Amino acid sequence: MSLLEIGGLVGGYGPVDILAGIDLTVEAGEILTVAGTNGAGKSTLAKAVMGLLPRAAGRIAFEGRDILGEPVEARLGLGIAYVPQVGNVFPSLSVVENLQVVAGVSDARGRIAELLAAFPALAERRRARAGSLSGGERQQLAFARALMARPRLMILDEPTAALAPARVAESFARIRGLPALGVSVLMVEQRARQALAISDRGCILDGGRVAMLGPAAGLLADDRAAALYLGQVGEAGA
Amino acid sequence: MFGALLVAGIVHGLIIGLAAMAVTLVFGIARFPNAAAGDTMTAGAYAGFLAHRATGSLALAGGAAVVAAGAVSLLGYLLVFRPLARRPVASLLVAAIGVAFLIRAVLGLMFGHQQQVFQVPLAWPIEVMGLRIPPMDITLAAVAGVSLAAAFGVLYLTSIGRQMRAVADDPDLARVSGIRPVRVMVALWLLAGAAAGIAGLMLGVKTVVSPEMGWEGLLSAFAAAILGGIGSPVGAVLAGLLLGVAQEVSTPYVGFTYKIALAFAVMLAVLLLRPRGLLGRVEEVR
User: Fold this and answer.
1) A233/chain B closest Cα distance in angstroms
2) What is the C-alpha separation between A210 and A124, in angstroms, rounded?
3) Most buried residue, A107, A115, A158, B48, by most Cβ within 10 Å?
4) Are A90 and B170 an interchain contact pair (Cβ–Cβ within 8 Å)?
5) Nearest to residue B189, comparing CAs of B16, B33, B30?
């Protein structure tokens, strides 16, 4: 049984379908990158899995349980976490408050201690307002916040979009470490080549459908994928 | 003379600050200007007035004001603002004006439109460092101080307060952090109502109790909420104090009629120099 199974998923924000029938799985312990051109439906897919899309139909199952009709809170409770592209920390709350505010965490105090140990930069600035953190520190806090409730699947929406170029590599290294913490990753990312380089599998969306799906190394080596979706090697943003 | 006006200004400023806190909390979290905050104050003033007339205790009057204004505020949310939550801000503002008229009409029907006066014992002013301060001003300042401490305690030291500040920062992120919006909203409206209730009680003791009192005080509360920086409770209280002191201290120079205009001139000047208000924040973009 896959951790996450998506079948025939359609949906959108209004009457127009942005997702036009998506079939995809995320296996336990893997990182799956979702790539594709702008408007292909990548972020919409991420929102649909979290329960944030106003209209969705089809099948989304988490650990075998159908969650399509479940609200966001229930999906969080089952072990799915979500890190939005922007606005992923509470700027006026302190670092520690950003972690304390996450609801439904058993032994929150112990969990905060674990996460501050895992992210030493945050431990140093535990009383600082999140709005005063650097871009890299802010992303660490966003990850720590999402990890608070001990999720088994983390959905990352363009995790490097708001980062300075110098911080991108360390961000991908951080994501690479998530499966070791027992967290599988569904990552939507513009920097497709770098994302695929740390992923087990990749999926390329086009027009709200899965155009290509397979091992990340295979996609990186695929001429058609490179030509149509991934950009040339070394190209800005690739 | 200046000292006496300063003291009066501080008490008046605390009243404005508490009312502004009610406005700015709703603005920051429910995201609309709550024009019913003034009449919620009035409801608190009447409840306090009745409790004081029955018992003679200002503490019990404060309790009654908090309970009644909190209940009125919560009812407004449950019956009107919650069903309209996804409507545009203009719709919510008009709805709030409607709620304000309704509260005022009900109070007018129940208690009539004549002014009522708190029967507080006359007492000689107490002299502190050459200032002659009416004992009631000291009592009211203490009531305001305790109320503000309680409100800030809820906001900054409790789990629900942290959740309220998180929703004010980013409601979408609050949702994916498992924060239950309805619980936060109930706490918000109770807290905002309680702050307005204490402001109403203090205004009633300082002036008179009438169905129109809160509506007339609403503009100052809005001004202080804007001046303090929308969504900043600390800013609202500081701005309330600034406006209250500016109004009272300017009275000998500009006269009673124009002191409110002068307070608004102060507000405009500050906003021209600092558009986000005293403690409002600029969203950082990286």
Assistant:
1) 27
2) 43
3) B48
4) yes
5) B30
Q: Residue B213: its pLDDT value, please?
A: 95
Are the beta carbons of B169 and A102 separated by less than 8 Å?
no
- DSSP letter at B116 equals B
**Measured CA angle at B45 (ends B235, B124), to 5 deg:** 85
The residues with which A4 forms a beta bridge, in sequence order, are A26, A62
> B interface mutation test: which of A85, A98, A101 has the most B CBs within 10 A?
A101
CB atoms within 10 A of CB B111: 16
CB pair distance less than 8 Å for B176 and A82: yes
Residues of B in contact with A88 (CB under 8 A): 173
Residue A21: helix, strand or coil by DSSP? Answer: strand
In a domain, B17, yes or no: yes
Calculate helix-pair angle for A135-147, A108-118, nearest 10 degrees. Answer: 140
Q: Which among A141, A30, A31 has a CA at the least distance from the CA of A83? A: A141
d(CA A53, CA A44): 7
CATH topology of domain A4-230: Rossmann fold (3.40.50)
- Mean pLDDT, each 10-residue run in order, chain B (286 residues): 84 96 95 96 98 94 97 98 93 96 97 92 80 87 94 96 95 94 95 98 95 92 91 93 90 79 80 81 45
ipTM for this model:
0.90
* Minimum CA–CA partner of B170 in chain A: A90
Amino acid, single-letter form, for residue A99: L
Q: Which domain holds residue B177?
A: 13-118+128-214
Taking CA atoms, what residue in B is nearest to A72? B176
Report if residue B203 sits inside a domain.
yes
The domain total for chain B is 1
The label of the residue with tokens 């966001």 reads A72
Sequence-distant (≥ 6) Cβ neighbours of residue A230 within 8 angstroms = A35, A192, A193, A196, A219, A220, A238
Evaluate whether B177 touches A101 at the Cβ level (below 8 Å): yes
- Rounded Cα distance between B286 and B280, Å, is 19
